[in-house]
Design brief:
Elements (H helix, E strand, L loop, with lengths): L6 E12 L20 E2 L5 E8 L4 E14 L5 E3 L15 E6 L9 E26 L1
Antiparallel strand pairs: 1-7, 2-7, 3-6, 3-7, 4-5, 4-7
């Protein structure tokens, strides 16, 4: 068996997500690089996006859908994760979900995490963490 090397590409913890937040990781500081902006995925051929919700969401019927997108040659972001959400299911309570970020697509040099918060009565998810681990 060959050696496996995990490359941590992105980490952000303690986030609060609601319908008024950034909706993309462009404005969030990457805990690995210390800088905000697009996620450099040029060093990997496939990866795993892990989403953790530490605290119970508020609001009525709250849902959190998380997606991974890559930039094409013109800078347009294209969704490469499941159409429903990463991992194929919406989050509606504490816990975690994960999913592959390649989905059969050739990864470009930059990617981002996008999310959509649904529900009524100001749904909010707190204590949210994102991490991306990749393989060369």
């Amino acid at each position: 068996m060959g050696a496996y090397r995990d490359t941590l590409l992105f980490k952000a913890t303690g986030l609060t997500l609601n319908s008024n937040t950034d909706h993309v990781t462009a404005g969030i500081t990457n805990g690995v690089t210390g800088a905000p902006g697009a996620i450099d995925i040029s060093r990997i051929s496939s990866g795993l996006l892990v989403v953790t919700v530490a605290n119970a969401p508020t609001g009525s019927s709250p849902t959190l859908a998380v997606f991974f997108e890559v930039a094409d040659a013109y800078g347009t972001y294209v969704q490469t994760s499941s159409a429903t959400s990463i991992g194929g299911a919406l989050l509606n309570s504490t816990g975690f979900t994960y999913g592959l970020i390649n989905n059969g697509y050739v990864l470009t040099n930059t990617g981002r995490i996008r999310w959509v918060v649904g529900g009524t009565a100001t749904p909010t998810f707190t204590g949210v963490s994102f991490s991306i681990h990749g393989r060369p």
